[in-house]
Write a structure and sequence with these properties.
Elements lengths: L19 H19 L4 H5 L1 H10 L6 E4 L6 H9 L34 H14 L6 E6 L6 H10 L6 E7 L10 H10 L3 H14 L5 H10 L5 H4 L4 H4 L3 E7 L3 H12 L4 E7 L7 H5 L26 H15 L3 E5 L9 H6 L4 E3 L4 H13 L3 E7 H4 L3 H9 L6 E5 L16 H6 L5 E3 L4 H13 L4 E4 L22 E4 L3 E6 L4 H12 L6 E4 L2 E3 L3 H7 L3 E11 L4 H12 L4 E7 L9 H8 L3 H12 L1
Helix pairs in contact: 3-12, 5-6, 8-9, 14-20, 16-18, 21-25
EC number: 2.2.1.7
Protein name: 1-deoxy-D-xylulose-5-phosphate synthase
Function: Catalyzes the acyloin condensation reaction between C atoms 2 and 3 of pyruvate and glyceraldehyde 3-phosphate to yield 1-deoxy-D-xylulose-5-phosphate (DXP).
Length: 619
Amino acid sequence: MILEKIKKPNDIHKIPLADFPALAEEIRGMLIRSVSSTGGHLASNLGVVELTIALHNVLDFPEDKLIWDVGHQAYTHKILTGRKDAFATLRKEGGLSGFPKRSESDCDAFDTGHSSNSVSAGLGYVRARDILGQKHYVVSVIGDGALTGGMAYEALNNAAELKTNFIIIINDNSMSISPNVGGISTYLSSLRTAEAYTGIKLNVTKKLTKIPGVGTAIVDTVRKTKSSIKQLFIPGMLFENMGLTYLGPVDGHNMRQMMKLFNEAKRVEGPVVVHVLTKKGKGYVPASTHPDRFHGTGPFDIMTGKPLSEKKAPTYTDIFGKTMVRLGKSQKRLTAVTAAMPEGTGLLKFQKAYPERFFDVGIAEEHAVTFAAGLALGGMIPVAAVYSSFLQRAVDQILHDVCMQKLHVILAVDRAGLVGADGETHQGCFDLSYLTMMPNMTVMAPKNGWELEEMLKFAVSYNGPVALRYPRGTAYEGLSEYKEPIALGKSEILHRGEKLAILGVGNMVKICEQVLDGLRQTGADPTFVNVRFVKPMDTALLDELAKDHRIFVTVEENVKSGGFGEHVAAYMESCHPQVRVLPVAIWDRFVHHGEVESLYDRIGLSARRILQAIEEFEE
């Protein structure tokens, strides 16, 4: 096998060009076999195999810097930099990350996991290189979907001032996770139709240079003229008008063409955009037919492409989506907003049922929130469904545009808490801290699927900013006998005991149920509270429990700093100093990838670890 010859960075330079197509097929086979076993991001990685090989052929690592936007498409890059033997550990605890990690390899130039930041990071590398008098190349690979994020344009605008080389590659596969939307998608589509331009440019240039005496001068004049020949063939000329040289489009599965263009890009004295056309899922029919389904996948059967796990009970996302459709029938002003995740957030059925009230704004979380604010001011009831980790990008918009104006915007915060295999960049461990610090914000967390549905109904009828946070995965069906109506700022007492009170937040209620059983086995009879509202905090209940309880244990799937436990501890310190508070939360750390249950135990959120913490606290 050709792939066996690649054991460390730059070994690809020893492979004859004639063997590159076979190498690409070997890598594809390895990716399909590996991801079918471990799960991961398949379609995007299959689409960039040739692109990655071509880049590695023209670059040297780790001297040159390659930055992958989002980063989930860096599997081939990892294989070509000496990590193929570790691929069986992909996304497993202690194994290879599914994203670039500087701690994993010097060839990973930037830790990525969120979108639209690669050009900014690359520009920083370029400026540092120039100041230090270094000579290496810096390449940022950004997907067409990531170009819906405003940060990319801030960086492109800044990059236009460069007088030295900086290569920006647009990986254009017509998709981010779901099909792309908006003006940039339309613009890139128009560029694709102008593929003939590149050939025309080369032919015209060759013929002009052959004119005796004046040919070269004419070519130089044409190149320097803003209204050049390129304007005739490509509408808009967005990148050139911003001050960046544009090359392409080029077939992203023709390695010779790409290498030729990449080498040409290396000679440009300034920022250069190389437009590469790839097909997401290429080489594996199920992935190319359904690229959205194979964006992020669990283990699957290679022959059929079907998931190995059987259909489970409804997820929290499923319940949210179905409830939105039901509410949309009676609530004619209810609208849904998502940032390129209609399927991931469960809104596909709402989109089909009420297309005029559904808005996919692309990968643009900041815009999504302020757009929702405008919808609210215009008389609608907007629900902005965004993953917890991605909602962090819109903190200023939530604070300034929603909370300051007391607008009725509902934030459906999916994937709150630990998400497991995707690791640090995707764990939703900070939302309780950044949302509860905001005046006028109401924050809820359901204990099970029924409560999610009831809380969404409450949020729609409420008048003000409200966030509803819920976890990834199967909705908890336990404690179904407890169905006390939702009331603003009121907790739910699941069991009234004595001395010690356990206050569980959202998904942690099911863990607290196990903790309660463990304590009962020791003869204790704790009070068990489903917090429901992290903000406003149920101070009336805290006051009541303070009369005959000496210890409060708060349990939340959020960082300790700024979380529910700290708020409870501060209140008790001020009003009931005789009551001790044990906040069980995630300490000051980023949580790496792994199985969620294993991570719970590692960071102190498993029932075993919580019981141990209580025992030590009582001593």
